[in-house]
Amino acid sequence: MRTLIKGGTILTTENEFVADVLVDGEKIAAVGTGFPEDGVDKVIDAKGKYVMPGGIDQHVHYSFVYKGSKVRGFETTNACAVGGTTTVIEFVNQVKGKGLIESLEEYNKTDAEGIAMVDYAFHPVMTDPRPEVIEEIPKLAEAGYPTMKLFMAYKGQFFHADDEAIINALIKGKETGITVMVHAENGDMVDFLTKKLIAEGKTGAYYHCVSRPPIVEGEATSRAIYLAEMAGAPIYIVHVTCKEALQAIKEAQQKGLPVYGETCAHYLLFDESVLALPNEEGAKFVCSPALRPKEHQEVLWEALREGWLNAVSSDHCGFDWEYQKHLGMGEGCSFADIPNGAPSVQNRMNAIWTYGVCEGKISKQKFVEIMSYNPARNNGLTSKGCVAAGFDADIVVFDPDYEGVMGVESCLEGVDYSVYEGMKQKGRPETVLLRGKVIVEDAKYVGEKGDGKFIPGAPYCKAYENM
Ligand code: URP
Ligand code: ZN
Ligand code: ZN
Q1: Residue-level pLDDT at 330
Q2: Of 22, 23, 5, whose CA–CA distance to 435 is shortest?
Q3: What is the CATH number of domain 54-382?
Q4: Which of 180, 295, 310, 425 has the highest local Cβ count within 10 Å?
Q5: Ligand 1 atom closest to Cα of 238?
Q6: So what's the pLDDT on residue 329?
């Protein structure tokens, strides 16, 4: 199958220019002008549209379980496609008693393969750091899993990791180029504040942010950086939300340490006031780290512009409000029982385009860099993230003139609410190709279950670049 995308403005991390894109099979064959149309099966008119690489969301949860509540799974990944995201990277918890690779392979067979509607990769999450599991870490590289994650937060949950587990992961991971990622919040501080607030009868959703203030994230971020420095390994800090954590990252980068980080769309667009919404609607916004006072948002935008943070993810977590998050507010419950995480994968790109690019906070080139190009490089997805010859034909034809409103009605995330409800949207993906196959046409999903496939990552990703 050969497809010609004609006359669009190609967006790269450096540039923009009008050109045609010739797709042959699953790959981009050429970018240029004057390609003959004979032998072409499909022509897509992209005049007046932007042509950009499919989004890569390097932080999603399709298997997360919080106190018994489970998120929606890969059967809802058509939401990614209509939002312009063609690859997602899922965090898969190691199952107690099983190995890291065994846990991932089993999860893939039962929950992702043949179901995913966009391409996917995995970050293994080490939950059971027995000596034989630590010894397994270097083998992740060969198996196509060049990253792994540990949770410094969530004390008392089976997936919480102590510093010893992180040190071991850093040292063993370095042997074969594995990038260790951490959720950086001090679990003991959160635990202490949570118990104190509950004892004082402060149980509503708003107290979620009081129980995990910025200092909790700042402490854990700088500790994680010290652990990485001691191990002589790079580290990637996921979902950075505040000045305190950024300060630690900046200082490390200024010292030349290989410290990298991302933020997420909701930390750029919402502040902690939404946690106090009436009728327990605040529960919709319970995610960790917590939303912050407004002044942190501008600092995060600046960190993206200046490169202190290199990606914007969704941290997508498809919990229902009514039957899952809201139930956490029932009799005898508190903010600590509300499943952590919010749905956001469908509108990650639309929201950052509307409130980032259209409001002049970031350029279109920066948009491509943080939504697609860098996430590909952070995770060793060497065939993705760029509209250029030889790359996978994961392409978004983006209509900048569309104006609409985001909300649950147009959402395919399979969840009963959207954090973006009623917010204006400028621009949208009109056509999306996944490895050459059109999966979105006229902004409607037209692909099939199983179109997405597992993409192994190569080790020694971006975090190792200057080592
Ligand atoms: O609240 C969140 N972020 N839930 C998902 C799990 C995590 O911490 O990344
Ligand atoms: Zn996390
Ligand atoms: Zn997460």
Answers
A1: 80
A2: 23
A3: 3.20.20.140
A4: 180
A5: 9
A6: 80
What are the C-alpha distances in Å from 103 to residues 10, 74, 87, 91, 452?
40, 17, 21, 11, 20
| Weakly modelled stretches of the chain, pLDDT under 50 | none
Using a 10 angstrom Cβ sphere, with 0-12 exposed, 13-18 middle and 19 or more buried, the burial of residue 210 is: middle
- CA separation for the pair 95, 155 (Å, rounded): 18
Q: Where are the domains of the chain?
A: 2-52+385-399+427-445, 54-382
What's the DSSP call for residue 235? E
Q: Give the 3-state secondary structure of residue 111.
A: helix
pLDDT at residue 95 in the model: 97
pLDDT for the residue numbered 25: 98
- 38: Cβ–Cβ under 8 A, 6 or more apart, which residues? none
In the prediction, which pLDDT does 171 show? 98
Please report the pLDDT score of residue 327 as a whole number.
Answer: 80
Q: Are strands 395-405 and 424-434 parallel, antiparallel or unpaired?
A: antiparallel
Q: d(Cα 58, Cα 376) in Å, to the nearest integer?
A: 8
Which numbered ligand comes closest to the C-alpha of 212? 1
Mutate to test the pocket of ligand 1, among 63, 154, 317 (most ligand atoms within 8 A of CB): 317
Name residue, tokens 């949208």. Answer: 428
The span from the CA of 243 to the CA of 90, in Å, is 27
Burial (0-12, 13-18, 19+ Cβ within 10 Å), 278: exposed
List ligand 1's pocket residues with C-beta within 6 A: 61, 64, 183, 287-288, 315, 317, 340-341
Residue among 89, 151, 287 whose CB has most ligand 1 atoms within 8 A, to mutate: 287
Distance 331 CA to ligand 2 centre (A): 27
Burial of 342 (0-12, 13-18, 19+ CB in 10 A): buried
